[in-house]
Amino acid sequence: MKPLLQSDIERAMKYTRSNMAASRYLNVHYSTYKRYAKRYFNDEGKCLFDIHLNPAGKSIVKITLNRKEEKYSLDDILENKHPGYALQRLKNRLINRGLIIEKCELCGMEEKRITDMKMPLLLAFKDEEGNYNLENLEILCYNCYFLTVGNIVGRRQEEKLGNVRSEDPKNSV
Questions:
Q1: Are residue 3 and residue 42 in the same domain, yes or no?
Q2: Residue that finishes a domain, picked among 10, 40, 66
Q3: Domain residues for 150?
Q4: N or C: lower Cβ tally within 10 Å for the chain?
Q5: Rounded to an integer, what distance in angstroms lies between the CA atom of residue 32 and that of residue 3?
Q6: Beta strands 137-141; 121-125: pairing state
Q7: What is the pLDDT along the chain (173 residues), one digit of tens a residue?
Q8: What does pTM read for this prediction?
């Protein structure tokens, strides 16, 4: 493996917000990055590794750099150019980009499940027309989603079921 240069580490620090993100940016293991970053010092005599520390590990959106490009850009989706885009995927993309906060907008629930450490949240439209504008989207827990939107299956599915039920001769009085 070739050594990491001070210029490489400084470039990674410029484009990232933590040492872990810088190691991902350089595509090296964290311990390798740490070993080299502790060797180099800035003009003021401070260790590069210590300068870029984030001991709390908070307020940093983790963006995977080696991820394949999505088929549709997020801007196009939010401009309603792809109206059938899956809400679950959109929710994950908005959270990863830091455009929405991962907690229920109505009750403020932000507890994670013990089994997989994910928050059970759903993305919903504020109006019934399904506009994908960011102002029209809200993130809700399952309870608030059920109370405001209705069945978890969704309105469209309920409409289909409602049409089937109304045509069923058994249900007619």
A1: yes
A2: 66
A3: 74-164
A4: C
A5: 9
A6: antiparallel
A7: 678 888 899 988 888 888 888 888 888 999 999 999 999 988 888 888 888 887 666 655 555 544 555 688 888 888 888 888 888 889 988 888 788 888 999 999 988 888 888 889 999 988 877 788 888 899 999 999 999 888 776 555 555 555 554 455 555 44
A8: 0.51
